[in-house]
C-alpha cells in the first residue's frame, strides 16, 4: 500500500533475513519505497546498501545522496554516515570541516558514535581547532550513552591529561 514504515520494516527483515530469506535486492526496492514515502530511516538504510554494495553496485555518490536525504529529515545516523563519507572522501570530496559539522549534528541528536568521532576530530585537530578538553567532554558524553570506544578514549585522554 506504499506506507513507508511498513516498507522500511519489511526491508529490515529482508536485509537481516528475519522471518524471510535474506534478499538485499528486495531490501533495496523496499527501502526505496520507504525513502520515497518520506522515511528518513529508509533513506539511510538504502544509503547503507549503496555504501556497501549490497543488492546494488557499490556507489558512494548515490549513498551520499541518500544519507543527505536522511540527514535533511533529522535522521542522526544518516548525518553520521554522511560525515563518514566526507571524512574518507568517498562520494564527496574529503572535507573534515563538513564531516565535523555532520558528526556534531548526529551527536546533538543523541547518536553516540557521532560524539565519539567528533571527539577524535577535536583530539587531532581535524576540521576543528584542536581542543583536548572538548574531546574529553565528547568522549564522556558518548561514554554516558554506553559507547565503549568512547569510554576507553576518555580514560586514555584523562590519563594523558587534557590540555
Task: Please give a structural write-up.
- By secondary structure, the chain is mostly helical.
- The protein folds into 2 domains: 1-82, Serine Threonine Protein Phosphatase 5, Tetratricopeptide repeat (Alpha Horseshoe); 95-163, Tetratricopeptide repeat domain (Serine Threonine Protein Phosphatase 5, Tetratricopeptide repeat, Alpha Horseshoe).
- Helix content is 72%, strand content 0%.
- The chain contains 9 helices and no strands.
- The longest helix has 13 residues, at 4-16.
How are the elements arranged and paired?
Elements: H1 4-16, H2 24-36, H3 40-52, H4 60-72, H5 76-88, H6 96-108, H7 112-124, H8 132-144, H9 148-160
Helix pairs in contact: 1-2, 2-3, 3-4, 4-5, 5-6, 6-7, 7-8, 8-9
Shape: elongated
CATH superfamily of the largest domain: Tetratricopeptide repeat domain
- The number of domains: 2
- The CATH architecture of the largest domain is Alpha Horseshoe
List the helices and strands in order: HHHHHHHHH
Spans where pLDDT lies below 50 across 5 or more residues: none
Number of strands: 0
Would you state the CATH class of the largest domain?
Answer: Mainly Alpha
Question: Beta-sheet strand percentage?
Answer: under 5%
Which structural class fits the helix and strand makeup? Answer: mainly alpha
Q: Whole-Å distance between the termini?
A: 57 Å
Helix run count:
9
